[in-house]
Every structure is written in structure tokens, then in C-alpha cells.
Amino acid sequence: MPQNTMIKVENLTKTFGNFTAVKGISFDVKKGEIFGFLGANGAGKTTAIKMLIGISKPTRGTAVVAGFDVQTDSEKVKRNIGYMSQKFSMYDDLTIRENIVFFGGIYGLSRQEIKQKTEQLVQELELENYIDQLVISLPLGWKQKLAFSVAMLHEPQIVFLDEPTGGVDPITRRQFWEMIYAKAHTGTTIFVTTHYMDEAEYCDRVSIMVDGSIEALDSPKGLKEIYGVNSMNDVFLKLARNIE
């Protein structure tokens, strides 16, 4: 795999009985790239991401993530990525500080590293006055930003974000994407799934899944030129009509 390629997927397939949720998808993602994995709910995005992070075995095909095969080296894949799930992944009944310490331990950080990361994270998110409050007391937007920061505690090469801005207000969504840009600027690869077509505009490249298949893959500008439209939402609508 080329040195600057962080994800390499070839003919990746997942079936459940007679149902094929992911149908032989192929793509690659470069170092420091913000790669958007778009599609309507039920298109197969979450099933695909579960295979890429090593928690679901592919039925067929191959995927190499951060230099490790998801079939044979799933534990090494997990240690070299960050992951923020579609549902909030912090523990509501623990404080902010306790969550950071807990996940820092899971990621194998030393006590000193956890202390330094806690101070840095709390300062960046301006949570100094709330660090010993239960996470359940935070607004959803702050919970999501905290979850993203915790997923980056161990400085992974790649972070997977599954519908990270679902349910949050537009201002918080913009702030969240500013955090994504900042991490990508340092060389972290960002793999983000979303069904918000406007968020595709923030990505370097996007793929669009329809019924388990990747039906389009290019930069937002390139896709709009291909389909002769002015927005990613129009790309998706035109693509859906063409498939019908």
C-alpha cells in the first residue's frame, strides 16, 4: 500500500443471510484527507464503517486501515484509530474528568500523559469550570465535541466519525467541523459518515452510497460538475433519480 494511503478498500462486502448490506465497495483514503462517506439512512454506511474499524468481519473483499488488515489484524487496527459512534459514546454517570481518565487508560496512556491530555483538552474546550460535573449535564453539542476530543486522546493516525453532528444545532455543527479541519491540518485522516448533504462541501472527497453500493466518488466540486448542479444535495437527488 502506498505510504500516504491510510485506507485501502477492495471489493468489501457484507451479507446478512440473503441480504447484502454492503456490495463490493472499493476506494482509498489519503493521509490528512477529510473523506466523506455519504448516503441516506440505511444505505450501508454504518455497516461499512464497522468493518473498517475491526468490529465486524467482512464477508468478502479486503480492507487495510493504518497499515493493518481488518480481517487478520483487527486489534492492531483498533489501537491505531479513533472512533466516535453514531450514538453518544461517553458515560453519562461519570464526570468529564472521569471519562477522560477512563478512556485514556483504555488507550494505554500513562498517568502523566492522561494528566497532560486532560489539561489540554479541558482548556481547548473551555470546560475548566465543568470538569467535575457529570457528563449528563452537558448540552448535546458539548457532549459531541467532548467525544471527538476523547477519540483523539491517543493521537491516532485515523479517526472515524459516524454521523457526528446528528441532532445538534447549526452553530455547533460549524464549530465541530472547525475541530475536524484543525485535526486534518496536523495530518490526521478523517473518515466521516453523514446524511447531511451540505456537510459534503467540507470534505476533500466524498463517496455517495446508495443501497449498499458506492455510486459516485470525487471531490464536491468534481461531482457538481459531473452532474451539472450547484449543490451536493442536488447531486444526491440527481444520482438517485438516475438509479431509479
UniProtKB/TrEMBL annotation:
GO terms for cellular component: membrane. The keyword Iron does not apply. GO terms for molecular function: ATP binding; ATP hydrolysis activity. SMART domains: AAA. Its main location: membrane. Keywords: ATP-binding, Membrane, Nucleotide-binding, Transmembrane, Transmembrane helix, Transport. The keyword Endoplasmic reticulum does not apply. Residues 7-236 form the ABC transporter domain. InterPro entries: AAA+_ATPase (IPR003593), ABC_transporter-like_ATP-bd (IPR003439), P-loop_NTPase (IPR027417). This is ABC-2 type transport system ATP-binding protein.
